[in-house]
Each structure stands twice: as structure tokens, then as C-alpha cells.
Write a structure and sequence with these properties.
The chain has 415 residues and is of the alpha+beta class. It is built from 13 helices and 11 strands.
């Protein structure tokens, strides 16, 4: 960054006001490309005589140096540019507050769902009918929410627990499966069956010792014990009355692979029930993003790339393509570089404009609890690329994603 006097600024010059802090100026961003004379006038009204500018990001050269003795243009005080922009900033601060409250509300709802899911798993053996009723109610609420609207909005939530556990994985797989189910235009009955099967798909893991579940290098006997969780899952739901075959098949077949190399029955192709094929993709995606050891976690784009390229033989190719389309170009949890040189993380998709998600911006001058949330439709900004968290400073990653886990809350949206 270089210093430049305000009287040399014109639209197209990229400036930085980071030294003032976000609350110290009326602009939406600390770093931005000037787009009109009103912005320059606001800087003058603030009494600022010089700013930092970035030649590489500028689309126009500054005005030439004023020669000695040249008349100074009279300042125009009639536009009240600063007052107008300060009012816009107040409106923006209020919108950020509302967005943050909305995210907090969804986090509370996700926590309630996690508690409900935990109660369901604990009730399966002793009170199977209560567990079935609670599970159907939990799935039904989400299905009704999605079916009653035109599209979906996917939110990243920050549940307080650092230990995900079975309930969090189950909720993610249920939400991801139902998102794909909506894209496929499944009937209400199919959606309910899919949601219930996805919620219960791993219930048999309660019988597997944690040391085996967490071990990524299992011995032969340990792998056999691990694979038995499918059978334990079928046993766990055996006392549920009138559970549809489609639900049972999601639990029984969510580890079957399209090329016939899966387990327990080595089914292949369309012999694998379609709802199980959907849940299998959602299950793999969440396991890649949220492994037991979060140091092995894949970024959303990396997880999608691994499923699409390295593991394509395992899954229904058409469903994988629809899954990628459903999650969007930048799924929640994606670290992104922005056209102003900033870094952020996607926290919410925008179904009407997938290239313009809601992004949390990294700014060390702003406390994380007050981090700026920016709808890219509101700013002259765009995503330049997705980033791997491994390429970012640790403090940036911890600012944007202190938990490491990616958990999702899905809402219906009317366009």
C-alpha cells in the first residue's frame, strides 16, 4: 500500500481505511475501490488528507500531482455526503445485527434438534415407540418447511459443543439428504422416509467401541466389527412398529457402493434403493468435512471434489452432480478470497444468487463476536476463489471457524 493525498483520488482508485477501524468511517468496507465522487467528498468532510491506495487493485490511475501555484478547487459543502453515508452505515449496522440475531436463532434451533436427536437414540432400546414418534416429528418439521417453499437456504451454525457426536452427524446427513431430495422433487412420503432413514442411519454405531470408530487404520477384525454397525442399526429399529421398508433400506444400504464394492451385501447400481443412494452421498460428504480428527477435515469444495473425482465409482453419478448443484458454488463453510483482497467464510447460501452468498469477513480489528456479515449483493464485491484453510494463517481460520466443525441448518425460502 502507498500513501496518496485525497485531492488526487478519483473513481477507480482502490483505497484502504483499515487504520481507522470499521467503526471509524462511514463506508461499508475497510478496503474498496472508489466508485463515485460522493465517496471522495465524504473523505474530505471527515478531514482526511491522505489515505493508503493499492495500485494493483485500482482500475484507474490517481489524478496527477497539482502543480505549484495551481488554484485549489473550492470544496463543495452542499452535498452532505458524509451525513448521508453515515446514515447508510447505521442502516448497515442494523442489518448486520438482524443477520447475527437470525444466525443465533438458527443455532438455538439446531441445539434443540441435537438434544432431540440424542433423546431419540437413547430411547431406542427402552422406549422404541417414543423414539419413533419423536423421530417422525423431528423429520416432519423439516420436510414440511422445505416442501412448503420454492427453494432452500443453507446456513452454517456454530453449536457450542466441540464434540460433534452421533446426533450432530445424524442431523447433518438428514438435512443434506433432504436438500438433495427436494432438488429431485421427491414426493412428501419419499421425503419423510428419506429423512427418517438418514436420521437413524448410524444408530448401530452406539454398539461399536469409540476406539474402533475413531481408528482410521483398523485391523481386519476391527473393520469387520465396524461394519457390523449396519446390522446393529437394523436390530436397534426392530421394535419400531410399521417402520416402512424404504426407511429400513436407508439404514441397511447407506454403505453400499454403486460399483458393488460396498457392504454389507455388495449391491451395485440401481439395485441399491434410491433413498439409500442419496443418504450415502450425504453421509460421505459430512464424514469428509467432519471426521473424528478435525485435523483431517476437508473444506467443502475439497470434499465435493473428492467425491466427484476420486470416488466417483462409489456413488450414483447423476445424484452426485445434483448434490453439487444443490450445495451451490460456495457451500457454507467455504473459505473465500474476495475481490478487495479480503478473506471470509460463507455462512449462508443465497438461492437466488449462488455467486453472492452471505460471508463473514475476517477483520482482526473487529471482535469475532461482532464480525461483519456481508451479503455480496450489497457490495461491489465478488468471490475470486475458494481457499483451503491449510493455506491461511491459523488466527484467520480460528477467527472465522473456531469450532472446526461444519453443521447445517436448512430453511425453506420463497423467491
Amino acid at each position: 500500500m502507498l500513501q496518496i493525498r485525497v485531492d488526487r483520488l478519483r473513481p477507480g482508485v482502490f483505497i484502504s481505511l483499515s487504520s481507522l477501524g470499521w467503526m471509524g468511517h462511514p463506508f461499508l468496507l475497510n478496503r474498496f475501490c472508489l466508485s463515485n465522487e460522493k465517496q471522495i467528498q465524504a473523505l474530505r468532510e471527515m478531514g482526511i488528507t491522505a489515505v493508503e491506495w493499492d495500485p494493483a487493485r485500482s482500475t484507474a490511475e490517481p489524478l496527477p500531482e497539482r502543480t505549484a501555484g495551481a488554484p485549489v478547487a473550492e470544496q463543495d459543502f452542499s452535498s452532505a455526503a458524509l451525513a448521508g453515508m453515515q446514515n447508510e452505515k447505521r442502516v448497515r449496522i442494523e442489518r448486520v445485527r438482524e443477520q447475527r440475531e437470525g444466525l443465533a436463532r438458527r443455532e438455538r434451533l439446531f441445539e434443540q434438534q441435537a438434544i432431540a436427536a440424542g433423546d431419540i437414540f437413547r430411547s431406542l432400546l427402552g422406549r422404541p415407540q417414543d423414539a419413533q414418534r419423536q423421530a417422525k416429528a423431528l423429520v416432519g418439521t423439516l420436510v414440511e418447511n422445505l416442501l412448503g417453499t420454492d427453494s432452500m437456504v443453507i446456513h452454517l451454525v456454530s453449536e457450542k459443543s466441540r464434540e460433534g457426536g452421533l446426533a450432530f452427524h445424524a442431523l447433518n446427513v438428514m438435512a443434506l439428504s433432504l436438500m438433495l431430495g427436494k432438488t429431485l422433487r421427491l414426493s412428501e412420503e419419499e421425503m419423510r422416509h428419506l429423512g427418517l432413514g438418514a436420521l437413524l442411519h448410524d444408530v448401530g454405531k452406539q454398539e461399536i467401541p469409540p476406539r474402533i470408530l475413531r481408528n482410521t487404520r483398523r485391523s481386519g477384525p476391527e473393520e469387520e466389527f465396524y461394519r457390523a454397525h449396519v446390522g446393529y442399526g437394523i436390530k436397534a429399529i426392530s421394535s419400531m412398529k410399521d417402520l416402512p421398508v424404504a426407511v429400513r433400506n436407508v439404514i441397511a444400504c447407506h454403505h453400499e457402493f454403486f460399483d458393488g464394492s460396498g457392504f454389507p451385501n455388495r449391491l451395485a447400481g440401481e439395485k441399491i434403493p434410491r433413498l439409500a443412494r442419496i443418504a450415502a452421498i450425504a453421509n460421505r460428504y459430512d464424514n469428509l468435512c467432519n471426521p473424528f480428527d478435525l485435523r483431517d477435515a476437508k473444506a467443502p469444495a475439497e470434499a465435493l471434489r473428492q467425491i466427484f473425482r476420486a470416488e466417483s465409482a462409489h456413488y450414483d453419478g447423476q445424484l452426485v452432480q445434483l448434490f453439487i448443484r444443490t450445495l451451490g458454488v460456495y457451500p457454507p463453510g467455504t473459505f473465500v478470497s474476495l475481490s478487495n483482497g479480503g478473506v471470509g467464510m460463507v455462512v449462508e447460501t443465497n438461492p437466488a444468487a449462488l455467486l453472492h452468498p452471505l460471508v463473514m469477513l475476517h477483520d482482526p480489528d473487529i471482535p469475532r463476536a461482532e464480525a461483519l456479515l456481508l451479503d455480496l449483493r450489497d457490495a461491489d464485491l465478488k468471490v475470486e476463489s475458494a481457499l483451503s484453510p491449510a493455506t491461511l494463517p491459523v488466527e484467520t481460520v480460528e477467527y472465522l471457524a473456531p469450532r472446526g466443525r461444519l453443521d447445517y441448518y436448512v430453511e425453506g425460502s420463497k423467491n
